[in-house]
Amino acid sequence: MPERIVVSFRGVAAAEGAPTGVPPSPAAFALGEARPEEPAPRSSTYLSRALTLKQRAEALGATLCSWGAQSFSFALGPDELEEAVSLAIQAVEDPSVLPGQRFAVGIAQGEMIPAGEWGRQAVLSWGQPLLAAVALAFIGDPGEVLLDPALPAAVSGELLTCGVRRGLQDDRRVRGLRLDVRQPFRRAAAESVAKLRVPLLVGSAPALELLSLPAGVVGVLRADRGVGGTRALLELRARVEPGRALFVTPAGASREPLGALRRALGRASTKAPPLPRRLEETLSRLLAGDGADLWTTAELLEAWLTPEHPEQTPPGLILIDDANDVDPWSLEVIAGAVGRRRAARAVARVTAEETLPPALAVAPVASTRTLEPLSAAEAEDLARALFGGAITPGAARRWARRGRGSPLAVREAICEGLEQGALRWVDDIAAPRSSAAGHGDPAGRTILPPGMTDAIVSTSLASLPADALPGALPGALPGALPGVPPDGAPRSPAKDWLLRRLDRLGAPPRVTLTALALLGGEASERAIDELATPLAGASARLAAVEQLLVDGGWVIRTEPGWLTLGSRTLRDLLLTLIPSTDRARWHATTASTLCQQGGPLTLADAAWHAAQAHDGCAAVELATRAARAAGRALLETAEAELLSFAADQEAAAAQREAAGEGIVDEDTDASSSPQTYRMPLATLSERLDGPTPDSRTPISAGYRPRQDTLPEGHQPSSPVIHDPSPQPATTVIRPDDRGGPSQLGLRLPDPDPLAATTRSPVMSPLDLGTRLVETAREAFVRGQLDGIEGVLAELHRLGTHPELVQRMSGIVALVKGSKSDALRQLRAAAEVELPPARRARALLAYAIALATTGRTAPSLLTALAAMARAREAGEAHGELACARFLEHLSAAAGHRDSANTWHEVAAKAALRRADCV
Fold this sequence. Notes:
7-stranded mixed beta sheet; 5 domains; elongated; Arc Repressor Mutant, subunit A; Rossmann fold
């Protein structure tokens, strides 16, 4: 039994020649203006109109399935909905027929049973859809199209309706949905959003006053989300011409050093001014994601924004949106550019509650302006401007009120009205669909009952391909309505309207939007596809949904190959709508995408996403790679922060592994950031390089070569959280600090180490080398290095233990103050390909030397590598030594939590070592 769409028509079967027409009104009758009713011509009779409609139906591919005295029906295939609706609308809006004489139409869908054929264009059939469609046609008024509530297109919302019609047919209750014959398809209504214009600036006069800022200062624009701050900054950029302007926004997860400046300069690269060759190379490195030092980048910004002869043009203007979300290194460069010789000026937008970011607050602040919510008149002006004036006054007033003073909410309310058909175009004028449309304030209350969003998500999932991952579609957070703030929290009308629109958007475009949100709200088409396709299949590819998203105002094409979300508010909402059970998958895929699409410094963002996905190993690896890139770019503070982040992730992963725990709580907020520590290199260097005399400790406290790598001191039986502040920094005692042997109370076993070894006529070179190694080791442990160079020279002559000789030689050079020679030798020893256990010792020695010379960031990186090699070798005492050093280094940097964590890791490693002994 084939499934068919049945369209039934009921007309007025008047006898031929019978009078027809509309009776005169009482007023016309009283005035004597009523015309006598005229007999209906043959062309307007029921039969002639039915035959004309039959010809139209056959042209559309429909077949006649029933014929009666006052009704007839046609059947079409289930995929011919457009033809069925077109046939119905032609019948009810026939201009040659008086309104009261037009057909009433009913549409239903289901299985039909063929009863016999009558030519090619008639297949008499029977079924429940025929009964439903005929019943709807009989209760409908002339000129109405009623839909069966069970019609799939009505259930999915593909067809727009405007009310309900109820009636009786053969003593049976019948209910039908009235089709909106002016705008029947929702997709056509959604496409009408594309007709909206970019309006002139409304209600942002205070922001324009910042154009008068002098060079060398920063202006502050206070504007909450949705009040029009971004729009005001864009207007300032347009009005600064012929001067130059740079629009800076947060990039990605804001972990990439100089990421915001990289994207800002990339967007404006087509308008780049002539630059010196040196600065062109800096710009190329910056755009490639390799970074550059802050001073040179500030010089690049100065040359970009301000010409050599500033009297010819106004000073350059840097516009910073969501300033507190921009990475601090970009802000530091901007502050430097503001204070240079050819000074620029900057305008930073913050919310009403925020202060200026510390990195930017160092620049002189000239003035502050605040954007307030729109007044009722301004909101109406904005509504009219969105339509270019082509909207009725009543509609402008109704939808302006729905925005509650927020420009973004006014626009989103209008978009929602157009998509729902409540606001529609009639003869190129936007007007309400009915007298009730647009009244009330759905954004001011809970707009969906609990569970409806999950139901919509479940329904939308059916449209995803079979290979789509379950749960990939962002849905409602468990136990709460998405977008609804907790009790007492201020509501965002813009978020409410966005949520209404998102709930009616298809599954694939929502996945694509979520991918763009996780990439920071601005990304290349290739990156979006690479993230969305693994999670939702080919249906979420940008090529399939891009036009829908652009026409709906969800995304904006800022440059070829790049898309940007319509607002930061939309980005925040999309992130909160990711189900907690799917966040790890989303973040892991995002990290993988950034590794493929980004530059070296972009790995900082990838590391953050890996941490959010609870993949500590990947987070450590990516953060250390990003730290190396930051070090090569001379971004020392960025390098230190990334290494600190890696250390925290390593410690957390080790703690979870040691405790046998699983991943962290799945309800971690996807939009929040893992805790990070900023480690100023100057402070660390000061603590590590300049200890007080009473804080200096023997080298044995921080370094034990070869097998015995357990640090000196008592090892507690259980991990105890202790205060790391009294712990001294790792230092090496210099010869002038060491004093004589009597002062140290140390005595070598033999005043001449060579006398006890080389004079033995029976020892083999291997045994001799082992004896020399033990002699050198004992000298190191006791802190007395007199004569040890001779031991090392003899070991070098014998050719045994070469990596140990090189490592010890570096330590001796370090003790004597030859830092460069020491680091060169220890680095060479650490780079030799060795088994994991021996490589761990070499790396740890190099890490300690780096810390001793004040190079804390590379020291941390090298110590983490040593820890990894020790674990690879399964060497508990090597892991213990690395953990103790990392604990010491964290304490010296003032990171108590990290120090305590490494203390616990060391305690567990010591217990494992004791079990192995």
